[in-house]
Recover the amino acids of this structure.
């Protein structure tokens, strides 16, 4: 059974990078489900920071995940789990794995500089470990409250086989004992996350590579709490086309993408493969991506997110969307035949309305043609009037006109398209003409058959 979790802090809206992480965790759990071994995807709201966490962000996170179809099997909130953290913290305190410290930020900064000056790694010197109970009592009496650090075990290197980065090795002596609790009693991210991962039976922690050094410390926290660490995998950071995480990309939220006409299927298809050398395939839905997901295929090089590519994938996705999926988004009266005719020309679903307007009219009058083209259009009207009106009407019309006018290629097709749609490009006329209808088509050809001058 695979258990994954997506653990955003509700201090802002989800951006493309978070969504990629959420998607990959969802895919991993889904892969377990589809393979028959079972899989659960948890949403864990990391809201220990009461000041910065906001309820509207929690709701936006849920809505964005729902929009993408990444529905969690359960939702947990850290702010409701403080009792558990307190109990586990007490266990660590009893076994001496957390200890009280009093240094201010300025003091720590100074210590760091001194150590660097001496050519030593700028890690915390553990001076507070030397404090006696009498020292602590004196500080408490003076109104001072401690913050707490986790005591790293320096005896053995920290190693793990990372699902993406391969063998990882950290020397704990080169790391500072991480602060896990502030002087006001509030929790920093590290320890509650480990406590939750244990309590929720998380088997796979998949997150950004900015967490690699946290993982080194957290690996020891799992052990200190008597648990086996989960499998870890750290994804390369997402960068924009300019090569770094631009402000724009860092803040590109789902609402903005929705408004730009991006469909969830397109984001899933692109982000599902982003960071691998596998091609993006707009035909793959989430389950197909889940089946083929292989962390070993994710590279360590930064994953490049290209908004233009997202729009291209979106167009390809829209071209495949069945009528039932889009019916409620189309102008009223636009049926399945019209959707099938028009969708190959869309970059996003919203553009369907423009083409439906082309079908139903009224159209802006096209520029008046020269005398010869006007005569050709008059001939087209006459030919069309004498034809059977069925699904093959366009082909029959152009076949007849080829013979009757001697025109071919662009000279044949373009004036007809302009007269019938007031555009130079667009959906296949064979599909469009039956939708336009006999009366309207004849009226448009007659109207266009008036020469300039
Ligand atoms: N709340 C943390 C973050 O957003 C969670 C990291 C994790 O997945 O453990 O960075």
């Amino acid at each position: 059974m695979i258990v994954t979790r997506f653990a955003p802090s509700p201090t802002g809206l989800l951006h493309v990078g978070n969504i990629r992480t959420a998607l990959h965790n969802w895919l991993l759990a889904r892969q377990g489900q589809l393979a028959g071994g079972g899989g659960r995807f948890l949403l864990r709201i990391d809201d220990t920071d009461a000041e910065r966490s906001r309820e509207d962000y929690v709701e936006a996170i849920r809505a964005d995940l729902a929009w993408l179809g990444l529905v969690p099997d359960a939702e947990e909130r850290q702010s409701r789990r403080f009792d558990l953290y307190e109990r586990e913290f007490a266990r660590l305190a009893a076994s001496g794995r957390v200890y009280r410290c009093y240094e201010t930020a300025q003091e720590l900064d100074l210590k760091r500089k001194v150590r660097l000056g001496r050519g030593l790694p700028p890690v915390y010197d553990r001076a507070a470990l030397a404090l006696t109970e009498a020292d602590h009592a004196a500080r408490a009496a003076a109104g001072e409250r401690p913050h707490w650090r986790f005591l790293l075990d320096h005896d053995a290197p920290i190693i793990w086989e990372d699902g993406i980065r391969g063998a990882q090795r950290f020397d704990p002596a080169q790391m500072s004992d991480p602060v896990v609790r502030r002087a006001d009693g509030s929790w920093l991210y590290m320890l509650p996350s480990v406590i939750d991962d244990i309590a929720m039976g998380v088997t796979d922690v998949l997150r950004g590579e900015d967490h690699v050094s946290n993982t080194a410390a957290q690996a020891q926290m799992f052990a200190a709490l008597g648990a086996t660490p989960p499998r870890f995998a750290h994804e390369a950071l997402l960068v924009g086309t300019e090569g770094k995480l631009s402000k724009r990309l860092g803040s590109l939220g789902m609402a903005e993408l929705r408004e730009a006409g991006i469909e969830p299927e397109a984001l899933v298809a692109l982000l599902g493969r982003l960071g691998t050398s596998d091609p993006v395939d707009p035909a793959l839905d989430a389950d197909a991506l889940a089946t083929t997901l292989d962390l070993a295929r994710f590279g360590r090089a930064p994953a490049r997110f290209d908004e233009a590519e997202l729009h291209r994938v979106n167009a390809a996705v829209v071209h495949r969307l069945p009528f039932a999926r889009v019916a409620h988004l189309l102008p009223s009266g636009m049926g399945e035949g019209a959707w099938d005719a028009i969708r190959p020309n869309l970059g996003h679903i919203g553009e369907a309305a423009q083409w439906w307007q082309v079908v139903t009219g009224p159209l802006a009058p096209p520029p008046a043609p020269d005398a010869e083209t006007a005569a050709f259009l008059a001939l087209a009207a006459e030919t069309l009037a004498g034809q059977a009106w069925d699904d093959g009407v366009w082909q029959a019309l152009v076949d007849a006109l080829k013979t009757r006018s001697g025109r071919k290629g662009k000279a044949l097709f373009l004036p007809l398209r302009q007269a019938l749609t007031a555009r130079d490009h667009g959906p296949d006329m064979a599909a469009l003409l039956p939708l336009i209808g006999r009366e309207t088509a004849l009226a448009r050809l007659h109207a266009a058959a008036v020469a300039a001058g």
In short: The CA atoms of residues 370 and 451 lie 5 Å apart. The pocket of glutamic acid is lined by residues 7-9, 46, 189, 193, 207, 211 (CB under 6 Å). The chain has a mean pLDDT of 95. DSSP finds 20 helices and twelve strands in the chain.
